């Protein structure tokens, strides 16, 4: 399929607007902005020359409207399931949580990277069906960062995101606002994903050759979408822009570059500002990772520049002077990031990322700590305690591992002897520990666990006690057992 490039303008999701104010028991005496986010089926073309694509989206669009939050100002969102009763993508009923007796269409919203009490975090089993809704509250007591919201329903998250259920959630705070980074219409979320798109415009989701168990371990498309369009263009002025790059794909990772060789100046990672701006020739993002970059188009008036994925165009910037100037200089320092000393950890949990052959003929299922989702909780940190999690990757693939509720730091990656592990369950290192690269020296909520490596992260478990989850963010893995609950126990 050869489609003309750069014929559709890049859609910029509108800012979500509150529909009113409400009180909430968790915030006595306050009136909070109240948003309604309705999940609806809709059709829109992914490209000028394709028929409209049936999709699902919050407020009938994908990405959904951008939720904007200010630090210290809580908000309420009523997530409403107004979807049809039937799914349009292939459900695998042999997967735990998606059995035949379960309703086909189930949704529950999660704000990825938000520190949210358990009752509003979107626990995968807290799903609800068409005609129902859930009122969630977001305290917003955390640093400015590019967060995102998406569906999290047990056993069908991969299909619900693939259908279009995601959007940006932008946290702001006064510290960041004082830095003079590009904002307003020069601050744009760019949600990147791939889809398998037919000539009929429809979304196809890959299936195995077993109709009783259609699950596949990865999902790769033939089209890369940026804010829901294929090869869009964006007119920009010769000044600086902040681009909030978000990998919202099921499986694909991105290696992003600019066609003119100009650096992407990274200012933030998953959980907010880096210590200092970091010019990068290429930005790699695994599923669910974010990077905020500043791109300066000054002096490029009249030029067309592409954002590329491994050499292929995703988005074209057309630099056109409209007479507006950008006078602020890039700050040399952005943030103070205190490294959490490993000695403050009360515990080092060794957790494997493994795969298991299923007797039922399914190729493999992935597991965390060798345990199924339904096994009793094993990760049970105490509130405010510091823990190290050592992620031992026993597979041949990268798994981007995400913990709900907390932000963490990457300590190191270290190669280990897989045979020694398999024989005696002991960690024998085969080389020195590798410190994280500069782009991983800020706060993260999703970390690449590389094959053959022990990836160690450190986190303080701040937040309200309750039950949360951690999982691989390859959505096919997450849906098929590569997800575990964790329990935050109240401080002693
Ligand atoms: Cu991006 Cu558990 O989620
Ligand atoms: Cu995985």
UniProtKB/TrEMBL annotation:
SUPFAM superfamilies per UniProt: Cupredoxins (SSF49503)
Coiled coil (UniProt feature): none
Domain spans labelled Plastocyanin-like: 107-174, 369-487
Pfam family, one: Cu-oxidase_3
GO molecular function, a single term: oxidoreductase activity
Highest taxon above the source species: Bacteria
Protein name: Bilirubin oxidase
Organism of provenance: Dyella solisilvae
